[in-house]
Amino acid sequence: FGTGQPLPPLQIPQQTAQHSIVLPLKKPPKWIRRPVGASFSFGGKLVTFENVRMPSHQGAEQQQQQHHVFISQVVTEKEFLSRSDQLQQAVQSQGFISYCQKKIDVSQTEFEKNVWSFLKVNFEDDSRGKYLELLGYRKEDLGKKIALALNKVDGANVHIKEEKEESEFLPSSGGTFNISVSGDIDGLITQALLTGNFESAVDLCLHDNRMADAIILAIAGGQELLARTQKKYFAKSQSKITRLITAVVMKNWKEIVESCDLKNWREALAAVLTYAKPDEFSALCDLLGTRLENEGDSLLQTQACLCYICAGNVEKLVACWTKAQDGSHPLSLQDLIEKVVILRKAVQLTQAMDTSTVGVLLAAKMSQYANLLAAQGSIAAALAFLPDNTNQPNIMQLRDRLCRAQGEPVAGHESPKIPYEEQQLPKGRPGPVAGHHQMPRV
């Protein structure tokens, strides 16, 4: 130091890298083996294993290892499975009326009771009459109300009174009467009648506001004149029930359904049940249900379900029920499927319609239901509820998994076409990494 000369370079000894040789193990070491493990599989199966070390006969230091694998069925939704079994039994035995009655008896809400009452009516005679009774219109009760309003009494006094009243208003057949042909309204009507001009006679009566005379003369003048007279009468009439009378006489039921106050939806549905022809009945019920469903009132929206039950429209019932109810819980989905299955059977029996074709929403609900059944171990039931006539990939894949999980083919059912392509892995190619699942190629 202090000489001003640079220091010589530092000599660092060279380190030689040591190459360690790792020999491949033929078997993993025993300490890395898991002593226990568990895994869930499709169909609600729980697979567990344990590696138990047992002392050998030669001494306590040497131990033998036994490997045990257990497969058990896990059931977490017992009430769900019980209700599903009851539904399947009702379908197999065709005991729909008794099934609906049981549902009515255990209903917790008035609306639920009404829904099952409407579903039950589909399997009974005179379904339209029973629907009217459920809406509050019993013919017997109505007859009593009308009799009370007319101050009628039971027995022969009714006939005596009626005969007396009729005789008072009938013109006497004896004596002479004057046929006026003056220039006033009566005279002009007389002249029109004498010449067979019913149309002019009716016009004169309408002009003079003699509605009853106009209708009576129009009946005598034929159906065409009667129809025109009815239209003119309804145009001049302004009573509270004129529009209802107009719809009934003109058979314009669509007017009632489209224009009525939705607070009177029961009355509108009653009119459709009473008068609508079979070929227009379902469409009118659908129309009323759509109006109720589009209304802002949640109570009216739920009542649309009753209209769809009358119409036999399963798809709209599913959509309406899904909006009104929480379908995330298995029992909520069970509530919906019960109603769907019963309504589909009712449509098959009463309307002779093919219900095998299902829409997207219903197929999704049925697929969700089948998944829940499969998760509880009910593979056969899941296959029974899964829709057949659909090409949705997720349903086709689920059907394939269910058939494979069942093992043996179901009698009377063809094995489904595999919804993906099978590919052979070449030898030496690594398998799927743990934690990653290979999805089938659709």
UniProtKB/TrEMBL annotation:
Name of protein: SEC31A isoform 23
Species of provenance: Pongo abelii (Sumatran orangutan)
Function of the protein: Component of the coat protein complex II (COPII) which promotes the formation of transport vesicles from the endoplasmic reticulum (ER). The coat has two main functions, the physical deformation of the endoplasmic reticulum membrane into vesicles and the selection of cargo molecules.
Lineage: Eukaryota, Metazoa, Chordata, Craniata, Vertebrata
Subcellular location: Cytoplasmic vesicle, COPII-coated vesicle membrane; Endoplasmic reticulum membrane
Top-rank taxon, per record: Eukaryota
InterPro entries reported in the protein's UniProt record: Sec16_Sec23-bd, SEC31-like
Transmembrane stretches, start-end: none
Keywords: Cytoplasm, Cytoplasmic vesicle, Endoplasmic reticulum, ER-Golgi transport, Membrane, Repeat, Transport, WD repeat
Keyword Amino-acid biosynthesis assigned: no
Main location as per UniProt: membrane
Membrane topology recorded in Swiss-Prot or TrEMBL: Peripheral membrane protein
Name of a matching Pfam family: TPR_Sec16
Region annotated Disordered, chain positions: 408-442
Domain Sec16 Sec23-binding: 189-383
The UniProt record lists the keyword Iron-sulfur: no
GO molecular function: structural molecule activity
PANTHER family per the UniProt record, alphabetical: PROTEIN TRANSPORT PROTEIN SEC31A, SEC31-RELATED PROTEIN
GO annotation terms (biological process): COPII-coated vesicle cargo loading; endoplasmic reticulum organization
This protein's GO CC annotations: COPII vesicle coat; endoplasmic reticulum exit site; endoplasmic reticulum membrane
